[in-house]
Amino acid sequence: MSKTGKRLKLFWERAYKGHAYWGGKKKLGRVTLAERGRYSWQAAGRAGSADDLEKAKKAVEAAVAMADKQLDLFR
């Protein structure tokens, strides 16, 4: 199989006070523990917060998926 036919393996990795979302060797997003049990997330130029870790992870995955499909206006 050629390199163009392979898809990046996307996976979550646990880190100190948070989690990182990786695509191969490139970090695509992260979720960190904020004050009082809230989680803040950053991915693809977007940021937010959530009450639950799963909701924050889903937000990162959605931001990465949307950035992959949306064209950049300034490039």
Summed up:
The protein contains 1 helix and 5 strands; from the N terminus they run E-E-E-E-E-H. With 75 residues, it is α+β, with helices and mostly antiparallel strands.
Structure commentary:
A hairpin with a 2-residue loop joins β4 and β5. The chain has 75 residues and is of the alpha+beta class. The chain has one helix at 53-69; strands at residues 10-15, 18-23, 26-33, 39-43, 46-50. A five-stranded antiparallel sheet has the order 1-2-3-4-5, covered by helices on one side. The model has no long low-confidence stretch (mean pLDDT 88). Helix content is 23%, strand content 40%.
Which of globular, elongated, flat, extended, rod-shaped describes the shape?
globular
Q: What is the arithmetic mean of pLDDT?
A: 88
Helical content (DSSP H or I, runs of 4+): 10-25%
Strand order of the largest sheet: 1-2-3-4-5
Major β-sheet annotation: 5 strands, antiparallel
Specify Rg, calculated over alpha carbons: 14 Å
* Distance linking N and C termini: 31 Å
Could you name the key traits of this structure?
single chain; 75 residues; alpha+beta; 5-stranded antiparallel beta sheet; globular
Topology, element by element:
Layout: E1 10-15, E2 18-23, E3 26-33, E4 39-43, E5 46-50, H1 53-69
Antiparallel strand pairs: 1-2, 2-3, 3-4, 4-5
